[in-house]
Specification:
The chain has 290 residues and is an alpha/beta fold. The chain is 37% helix and 16% strand. The protein contains twelve helices and nine strands. It has a nine-stranded mixed β-sheet. Helix 8 runs parallel beside helix 9.
Length: 290
């Protein structure tokens, strides 16, 4: 990149003329800075994954329309190739929704599913806690660059609520992933990018409490378009809120789940290959053995 001509930077890499000019003028300084970042990443055992790498997951290509992101990762890379589930809520889920998220996520972790979550938001905290407490596996999408997140306390459990179940990061059961540049910090627009990667990494998505017109509803719809199995909770003890998107997701093809505090529908989520017509008739399923 740094030795390329200005024409190649524009034609091959698609850079604007002003960007190509800056790289041409500052190639030596930029190259030195990049080398220092890579050295710091190596010291923290951060792996840089390109879409052509063997360890890169094939789940992202269609979701990103043929342009999957560069990933920075630390931990157990094999988790990218395990059965993955994401429990999704919008920004302000009810306490009832979080209770159901915790119950089902715990049962899924006990059943050997890898939970995909972030480090922020109540919903992601609950999913991270479920994985940690159950001794299960988790892929955690970090909301900033991995160098920014790890340099001061690299072995700290990244999900705040999960620290109650163990302070130290378990690299055998956890993979930290970031689509942001190594030294990047949280900024406006990082949230939707993080949420997209969470959903894209999952084979099955459970929409627990999703706001109509929000980012999570859009991502669930996108997941269905890409043939991912999406489930949407139905809360039988409360009226459907006008701003809740769960019923519209079901109408669009999501499999309905009756929400409960015991995670009793875990069998339905695990049987992801069953046709939707069969799934509709199951309602509450029997409990799966832990």
């Amino acid at each position: 990149l740094y030795s390329a001509t200005s024409k190649r930077l524009r034609d091959y890499y698609g850079l604007r003329s002003s960007a190509a000019q800056i790289i041409g003028e500052q190639a030596e300084q930029l190259s030195e800075r990049a080398a220092k970042l890579v050295a710091r990443a190596d010291a923290l055992e951060i792996t840089i994954l390109a879409p052509v790498d063997t360890d890169y997951t094939g789940r992202l290509d269609r979701f990103y329309e043929g342009e999957p992101p560069l990933l920075y990762a630390r931990g157990n890379l094999q988790l990218l190739h395990t059965p993955c589930v994401a429990m999704m809520n919008s920004a302000k889920p009810s306490s009832e929704s979080l209770e159901y998220t915790l119950a089902l996520a715990t049962r899924l972790a006990e059943a050997g599913q890898t939970l995909v979550a972030g480090t922020e938001s109540a919903s992601y905290n609950v999913a991270g806690l479920a994985a940690k407490r159950a001794g299960g596996s988790a892929i955690i999408v970090v909301h900033e660059g991995l160098l920014t997140a790890l340099e001061h306390r690299p072995d700290r459990e990244p999900v705040p609520l999960a620290r109650f179940a163990g302070e130290q990061l378990d690299p055998r059961r956890t993979l930290l992933v970031s689509p942001f540049r190594l030294d990047g910090r949280w900024q406006k627009g990082s949230g939707p990018r993080r949420d997209k990667l969470v959903v894209a990494l999952a084979e099955r998505i459970v929409a627990v409490d999703v706001k109509a017109g929000g980012t999570i509803e859009r991502l669930c719809q996108e997941a269905m378009r890409h043939d991912r199995r999406v489930f949407a909770c139905q809360f039988v003890d409360r009226p459907t809120r006008a701003e809740c998107a769960n019923e519209s997701l079901i109408a669009a093809g999501a499999t309905p789940l009756v929400a409960d505090s015991a995670g009793s529908n875990v069998d339905l989520v695990l049987a992801a290959g069953e046709p939707r017509s069969t799934a509709r008739g199951l309602g509450r399923s029997r409990s799966a053995p832990s």
